[in-house]
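Internal tracking record. Fields below are filled automatically when a chain is submitted to the structure queue. Please do not edit lines marked as system-generated. If the sequence contains nonstandard residues, flag them in the REMARKS field before resubmitting.
Queue: standard
Priority: normal
Entity type: single polypeptide chain
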Amino acid sequence: AQCAAAGIDCVEISCSYLKEAEQIDFASIKEWSDKYSVKLWSFHLPFGHFDQIDISSTNDELRENSVKIMGSYMEKAAGIGIDKFIITQAIDAYDAMVEEYGETSLDEAA
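SYSTEM-GENERATED OUTPUT FOLLOWS
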């Protein structure tokens, strides 16, 4: 009732790093969603440094492992009703932008 009163009817489940994704309790999230009548709208797939997870890598082993990891989280999220998935760049891309443009200009752009 509190969620509905606040105008919250859906949420995105998000984790930053791959290590955080490993701690997600999908069953508990589903229980919370049902209890508060909040739709699980989307799942932001985990990311990390390019040497950890990179679905665009030319390194076959890294790319295939990354796709496998992403697929496993998509299956887990789909199992609790989520059908939208977000993939973002690796941390390295952000670090490269900070190096080139500076942290201040990135903050101003946001």
